[in-house]
Amino acid sequence: MMVAQNGKDLLIKVDMTDAGLFETLAGLRASRLSFNAETVDVTSLESQGGWRELLAGAGVRSASLSGSGVFRDAGSDERARQIFFDGETPNFQVVIPDFGIIEGPFQVTSIEYAGAHNGEATYELSMASAGALNFKAL
Q1: Domain, as residue range, for 24
Q2: Among 37, 49, 74, 109, which is most exposed with the fewest C-beta within 10 angstroms?
Q3: Residue 51: phi, psi to the nearest 5?
């Protein structure tokens, strides 16, 4: 029987020192990981039955990460801001409960801050893969 996983256990971590010291991005309430693969169409007049044919393993693969939460101004928040302004591509980790850890370089593509007069300051962060990603099963 499959057991549902708790969403708060999907963690986005950033390498704080470029030496493998990963820390969870502070204040996250929601996070998302998306994988994409472009296709290369090689359909021709000889394609059986007129069906589209794709060239295996030829498209560009990418991943995107996003997260949103309460702004805490912690060390990991400062690191994310610095990565954005310096255009760095350090390693991030995404911990997917009972599945594994995805690790590799990402570029921070956007940071948004928001706040209401009678509420907490919040932030949203988006990242795009910037190199090969590795998977390690848990």
Answers
A1: 7-137
A2: 49
A3: -75, 145
| Domain-embedded: residue 1 | no
Q: Which two tokens stand for residue 47?
A: 């394609």
Q: What is this structure's pTM?
A: 0.85
Contact 37, 3 (CB under 8 A): no
Query: What is the count of structural domains for the chain?
Result: 1
For residue 113, is it within any domain? yes
Residue 42, token pair as written in the block: 């090689």
Q: Which of 39, 100, 91, 98 is nearest to 65 (CA)?
A: 91
Arithmetic mean of pLDDT, 115-123 = 90
To 5 degrees, how large is the angle CA 17–CA 21–CA 24? Answer: 105
* d(C-alpha 73, C-alpha 127), whole Å: 19
For residue 46, being part of any structural domain is answered with yes
**Separation CA 34–CA 101 (nearest Å):** 14
Contact present, 29 and 70 (Cβ < 8 Å): yes
In this structure, what token pair is assigned to residue 84?
């954005």
